[in-house]
Amino acid sequence: MLKTIYSRENRLLLKLLREVRAARGLTQADLAKRMKMRQTDVSKVETGVRRIDFVELRHWLIALDLDMPAFVDEFERQLPSVAALRKT
Questions:
Q1: Half-sphere exposure for 24 (CA within 13 Å, toward CB)
Q2: How far is the C-alpha of 23 from the C-alpha of 40, rounded, in Å?
Q3: Kindly report the CA angle at 74 between 78 and 68, in degrees rounded to 5?
Q4: How far apart are CA 81 and CA 68, in angstroms?
Q5: For the chain, which residues score pLDDT lower than 50?
Q6: Considering the entire predicted model, what is its pTM?
Q7: What is the C-alpha separation between 12 and 85, in angstroms, rounded?
Q8: Is the CB of residue 47 less than 8 Å from the CB of residue 15?
């Protein structure tokens, strides 16, 4: 089984996190400050070098002023196009 860190679904998760941050007009440094972490750690998450768990994802979304259900809805909305890529 493919490790989920390398999955298309995980790449979608990271893409959405980057897009939300950018849509909010925040730099990685801005988000890091809100989360009391280093900019390099934000970069590592966004590039897939470092994983985040469910609880950290929740804190990440709070820092981005986005609730979890809205984020999950968008993830699920985009997931079929990601799954279609897997079959090709």
A1: 19
A2: 20
A3: 145
A4: 21
A5: 88
A6: 0.86
A7: 12
A8: no
